[in-house]
Request: fold
Amino acid sequence: MSTPGNTAEKTAVAAPARAGDAWSGASFTLHGAGVSAGIAIGRAHLVSAAQFEVAHYEIEPERIDAELRRFDAALAQVRGELVGLRASLHSGTPAEMSAFLDVHLMILDDAHLSQASREMIAAQRCNAEWALVQQMLTLTAQFDEIEDAYLRERKADVVHVVEKILKAMPGNESRPLSVQSEDSVVIARDLSPADMIAFKHHRFAGFATDMGGVTSHSAIVARSLNIPAIVGLHNARALLREGETVIVDGREGVLIVNPGPRVLEEYRERRARIERSRARLRSLRGTPAATREGVAVELHANIELPEDVALVRESGASGIGLFRSEFLFLNRESLPEEDEQFEAYRHVVRAMAGLPVTIRTLDLGADKTANGRGPAAPNPALGLRAIRLCLAEPRMFQTQLRAILRASHYGPIRLLVPMLAHAHEIAQTLDAIRQAKASLDAQAVPYDRALRIGGMVEIPGAALALGEFLKHLEFLSIGTNDLVQYTLAIDRTDDSVAHLYDPLHPAVLYLVAQTLKAGKRAGIPVAVCGEMAGELAYTRLLLGLGLREFSMHPAQLPAVKRLVLSTTLAEVESLAARLMRTRDAARRRALIEALRA
Ligand code: PEP
Ligand code: MG
Reply:
């Protein structure tokens, strides 16, 4: 998605650390993957994950000793508490309890945590909370790589001890995830989808993380914030200082730190050009999407939260093709009740005023976990995720199904089921929907009896054996984000394999093309709702393969529409047919190039 150019005066891509103040004010460039186009110019604001949001500030040289004493005082207080607790255990207390306290005492005194934090306070002149949380993140990342499950679980103990120290730190108040002002550019190591949702309630200029792939859910939410964003920068958080001037080029995936006046001027001009072109695109809002021959194409929008619907209306989308309902379940202690879900779904349906709304049932698991839903599985993307989790938790599923059905009384809803692969999963899901309908019937609660039920095709096995899907479901939607992940065995959240994440891989295109063809033959509409649908580079190719329903982030929609309007279907169909036939790599590249925007 991004092939960065080098525009800054000085480049320092792989520097592991920035020694003291020697670099203060130096200009340098970092390269990652652009996930949300546009240019932001602002001040760096360094944050940690929401749970450990702590202030980051510089300490005057003469205050360093006092800061170290503040840190030591917190350690001493926690040590006193733990020792006191251990002494108070009576003889009948299980042995694990005292072993548990011993482990916490060991962690507290471990040099990797305490001594390393002290060194960081002195070397970087940063506050103690910040140093401690950075050391914790380094340690917990190492724990993630440990094979031994018992040792891996000790990560939670490190986190508990750090929480205790933070609470004991004199003068520390825990703050909600915050951004300082509208010109702040958030710089983070990694943020979960839940953290990103918390950001939806703030305004800021741009966003950059060290971790993450372009189709990770964090990146998808970053895109939905509609601000320039970059993921996979590796060293940004370690190299940047609070308040430094940064430029985020969300298209090229370039972060420029402390730009000189010439570079700043150049990017201000580029930003203005992008704004002008967006304003021109907005004028297409009321134009129906159709190819040059007049073949209608549905351009739908993806949303995560009910409030996103305002952006959908502005974009001129002809419906919602994917409402990722699981985002209603993040960042909270308990699961939302039926009434709360019903209100959220009804709000969206009413706001769409008669246009179709596709609500996807819960896709929790993998990188999206609701609070209190148990520890991560050994291999969460292959684990109890999405429909598998719903079928394992029938009460939770019934609550959601009833809420969706009730909302369908207020406007056209389509119900979309994620991660289906097996015939028995389809059968069980349809049974669950019948059961929810029966319970509403018993209470004489109205719902749309013609509500259509569809399935996502995002597991290669599903795409290769669509028979049951076509027999029992009324529409399909290809989730290319997961389809690529599972076809190519690329963890979509792992930036170290992001370069292998390729929607144009022949196997992926084969699965997409086959699904479109099979749907057409059976008279079952097929949409694409993965990120591929909003990428201009793939629009003509997908049209050529037969796609007539795209669902994407609303900000992408006007540009995709312009491209659809300028496409001659006969031309792209012929190019796509040749692409699917050829085995020659050079011809393949040439055809893909010819199909690009
Ligand atoms: C997909 O997998 O392409 C998709 C649309 O769903 P999600 O990104 O939420 O997994
Ligand atoms: Mg998916």
